[in-house]
Amino acid sequence: MAAPLLVLASTSPRRRDLLAQLGVTPHRIAAPDIDETPRKGEAPRAYALRMASEKAEAVPLATGEIALAGDTVVAAGRRILPRAADTAEVAHCLKLLAGRRHRVLSAIALKDDTGHIRTRLSESIVAFAPLDAATITTYATTGDGIGKAGGYAIQGPAGAFVRWMSGSYSGIVGLPLFETRALLLSAGVELG
């Protein structure tokens, strides 16, 4: 039986780069179009898993294809922080995160050509150093945090704000490699 063809249900270059670390190149890339609004009272963990599953579900598959989707959520307590749309949102997120710990939940979902979906979740804790207003403004104006969950990218200049972390670095970046590898192997995907 032939190995399944992987469809990456994400246009994120970071997810493509992380997959490449596993020796995997997607057969094709599909951009899922879903409503990413959290439900009233939805917990961050449930939201991350729902988003990953809905993204995988939104991708039509041909016979022999499987879809891999992911979603990364930054949570301050039970509060789900947005994907920062502009510099003001980046600054707002950093003000909330400065000097405290937060969770980064990275969910992945794998859908086969019968529609069956399997999920995994990586949970990491990140502690930011205290940040003054000038540091926050300077980072926000770089544009690095725009479009990123919680208004920052750990692999960019914001990595200097991290006092310590516990968990999966790749999960914080956007695709937890340990969980992804396990799901792909269980589906028969050949890793490089």
TrEMBL record:
GO terms for biological process: nucleotide metabolic process. Its EC number is 3.6.1.9. Its main location: cytoplasm. The gene is maf. It comes from the Bacteria. It holds the Pfam family Maf. This is dTTP/UTP pyrophosphatase. The record marks 14, 72, 155 as: Important for substrate specificity. Gene3D superfamilies: 3.90.950.10. It is found in: Cytoplasm. Keywords: Cytoplasm, Hydrolase, Nucleotide metabolism. GO terms for molecular function: nucleoside triphosphate diphosphatase activity. GO terms for cellular component: cytoplasm. The keyword Cell inner membrane does not apply. Its cofactor is a divalent metal cation. It catalyses: dTTP + H2O = dTMP + diphosphate + H(+); UTP + H2O = UMP + diphosphate + H(+). Belongs to the Maf family. YhdE subfamily. CDD domains: Maf. The keyword Hydrolase applies. InterPro entries: ITPase-like_fam (IPR029001), Maf-like (IPR003697). The active site is at residue 71.
